[in-house]
Amino acid sequence: MYATAWTPAGRATAELLFAPGPGGTLLIDYAEHRADGEMSGHGVVSDGGWWWFDSYGFVPASAGTSTWEDGELILERRSERGRNVMVLASDGDRLTMRLAAAPVDGELQQLVSGAYRRVRADESA
User: Which end of the chain is more exposed for a tag (fewer CB within 10 A), N or C?
Assistant: First the structure.
């Protein structure tokens, strides 16, 4: 994790869960654990739209966008606080995630980057 207006720099562990939803919707659940606290979130990707709800409590005023580009899923949101862009890429059992954020008139800065490995249901116990 990189230092931002919301969090100090540091290390975290996290889990991402992807599940199919109704009508081709993709559901994303996220849980992050840091020495100084935790954060959880829930995302919905559907028909080119992207919604994110998390434990920070900001409710999206409108949908963001979801696009596929060169094998990466790019999820972008804008609000009165600024914008953020999440990029997800899969390579077999490995998933990489990059998240960058910017204030309203600022440039994107790296917020989080991570590499995740697939854990099958029979491995999680």
Answer: C
Positive or negative torsion for Cα 102, 55, 77, 32: positive
Question: Across the beta sheet with 26-34, what order do the strands follow?
Answer: 12-20, 26-34, 37-46, 49-54, 64-69, 72-79, 82-91, 94-102, 109-117
Spatial separation of the C-alpha atoms in residues 19 and 55, rounded to whole Å: 20
pLDDT in tens, 9-21: 888 888 888 999 9
Torsion angle (degrees, nearest 10) of CA 91, 93, 96, 97: 120
pTM as predicted: 0.83
CA angle 120, 87, 94 (to 5 degrees): 30
